[in-house]
């Protein structure tokens, strides 16, 4: 008699709806057209394309436009159907797209930067076009006149940008790992503060104006949540990716954070729980558990006639410890550590099995992801990267059910 096979129920995962192929080089940006079965893409092959879903279910290009320089960033304003495309040569070009998405008319060119444009945002209320670039600056320009209103320079390449329309605050991430908060005025700006916490270049930012939370992803594989409007200086660290975090999107309705990394990893983080801040690492000349000297503590080594030890840190308590006092590894999701990290032996004993329950789900995008964008109202996500492929995903299985959130998958 054949043995019974009990299949384990699979955990919910994103559903790949479509693949869009056609670019001849890396796809720099891809955006879903709200309320339409369409995608706008811009690539290093100097093309901007609008893809519409046909009756066959396949996406076909309805617009194919070649630019003078590789396309590096893009912003789309659906109500006015205006597209802004940043280029490798520092210029931003504005187009107006027709109602049937079959025609695109050139409007004007903005001399925004002297080098590659890294991020663009458009504010209709003030008619401002705000952008960052590899010329180490943020610029804001008037879309009525096309003239430059102001510029502010940083010490490193400006890599990403978020803007709060109501307060006129701009958040700029750069290659040094720093985030600068600026207040933009008509022709001037002031630096409010700088945020330092990442050990690698800032690759992505997301601002939630409702809860006043800023999320930053970096090449150090980590994400930090900065509580801008709440308790002063409160930060939460999220570590679950194995490569640089390329894109993030916070869904305020369900208190979930979606992040994508260069190795194709897609993570959905539960932010609707009380998480713990990771402690500051403590400095000491000797192990804070056994008091053995570290290798630079010459005096104690000489006095005790012992060889100095290498310094480590417990991720849970932050104490400076030697290898013998931190022989264990553990995950600790409540503090954002989704994979195993070094903890001291006493902290390891204090972590219960239920404390190791994951607070995020991890999925495989199966392509190099350099950019991601979500249509939160429909629970759809688009990813693209250096493999020249654009993928459209139904994220509703992992970001909330249709009835609870108002999502409909199509």
Automatic annotation (TrEMBL):
SMART domains: FYVE, WD40. It comes from Calcarius ornatus. Positively regulates TLR3- and TLR4-mediated signaling pathways by bridging the interaction between TLR3 or TLR4 and TICAM1. Promotes TLR3/4 ligand-induced activation of transcription factors IRF3 and NF-kappa-B, as well as the production of IFN-beta and inflammatory cytokines. Keywords: Endosome, Metal-binding, Phosphoprotein, Repeat, WD repeat, Zinc, Zinc-finger. GO terms for molecular function: zinc ion binding. The keyword Nucleus does not apply. This is WD repeat and FYVE domain-containing protein 1. It is found in: Early endosome. WD repeats lie at residues 20-51, 195-228, 238-279. GO terms for cellular component: early endosome. Its main location: other. Residues 281-352 form the FYVE-type domain. Pfam families: FYVE, WD40. GO terms for biological process: positive regulation of toll-like receptor 3 signaling pathway; positive regulation of toll-like receptor 4 signaling pathway. InterPro entries: WD40/YVTN_repeat-like_dom_sf (IPR015943), WD40_PAC1 (IPR020472), WD40_repeat_CS (IPR019775), WD40_repeat_dom_sf (IPR036322), WD40_rpt (IPR001680), WDFY1/WDFY2 (IPR042234), WDFY1_FYVE (IPR042733), Znf_FYVE (IPR000306).
């Amino acid at each position: 008699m054949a043995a019974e096979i009990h299949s384990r129920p699979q955990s919910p995962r994103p559903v790949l709806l479509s693949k869009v192929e056609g670019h001849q080089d890396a796809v720099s940006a891809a955006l879903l057209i709200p309320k339409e079965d369409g995608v706008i893409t811009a690539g290093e092959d100097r093309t901007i394309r609008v893809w519409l879903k046909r009756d066959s279910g396949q996406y076909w290009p309805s617009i194919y436009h070649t630019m003078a320089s590789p396309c590096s960033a893009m912003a789309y304003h659906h109500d006015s159907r205006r597209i802004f495309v940043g280029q490798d040569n520092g210029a931003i070009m504005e187009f107006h797209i027709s109602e049937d998405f079959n025609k695109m008319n050139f409007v004007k060119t903005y001399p925004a930067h002297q080098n590659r444009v890294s991020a663009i945002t458009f504010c209709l209320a003030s008619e401002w076009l705000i952008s960052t670039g590899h010329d180490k600056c943020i610029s804001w320009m008037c879309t009525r006149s096309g003239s430059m209103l102001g510029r502010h320079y940083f010490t490193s390449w400006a890599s990403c940008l978020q803007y709060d329309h109501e307060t006129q605050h701009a958040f700029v991430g750069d290659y040094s790992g720093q985030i600068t908060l600026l207040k933009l005025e008509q022709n001037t700006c002031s630096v409010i503060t700088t945020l330092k916490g990442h050990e690698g270049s800032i690759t992505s930012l997301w601002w939630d104006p409702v809860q006043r939370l800023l999320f930053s992803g970096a090449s150090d594989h980590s994400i930090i949540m900065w509580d801008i409007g709440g308790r002063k200086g409160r930060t939460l660290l999220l570590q679950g990716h194995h490569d640089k975090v390329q894109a993030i999107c916070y869904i305020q309705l369900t208190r979930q954070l979606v992040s994508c990394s260069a190795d194709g990893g897609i993570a959905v983080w539960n932010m609707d729980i009380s998480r713990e801040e990771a402690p500051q690492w403590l400095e000491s000349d000797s192990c804070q558990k056994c008091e053995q000297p570290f290798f630079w503590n010459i005096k104690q080594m000489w006095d005790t006639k012992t060889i100095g030890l290498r310094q480590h840190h417990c991720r849970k308590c932050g104490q400076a410890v030697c290898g013998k006092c931190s022989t264990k590894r553990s995950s600790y999701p409540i503090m954002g550590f989704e994979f195993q990290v070094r903890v001291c032996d006493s902290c390891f004993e204090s972590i219960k099995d239920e404390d190791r329950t994951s607070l995020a789900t991890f999925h495989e995008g199966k392509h190099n992801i350099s950019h991601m964008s979500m249509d939160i109202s429909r629970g759809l996500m688009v990813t693209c990267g250096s493999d020249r492929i654009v993928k459209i995903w139904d994220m509703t299985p992992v970001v909330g059910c249709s009835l609870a959130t108002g999502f409909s998958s199509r």
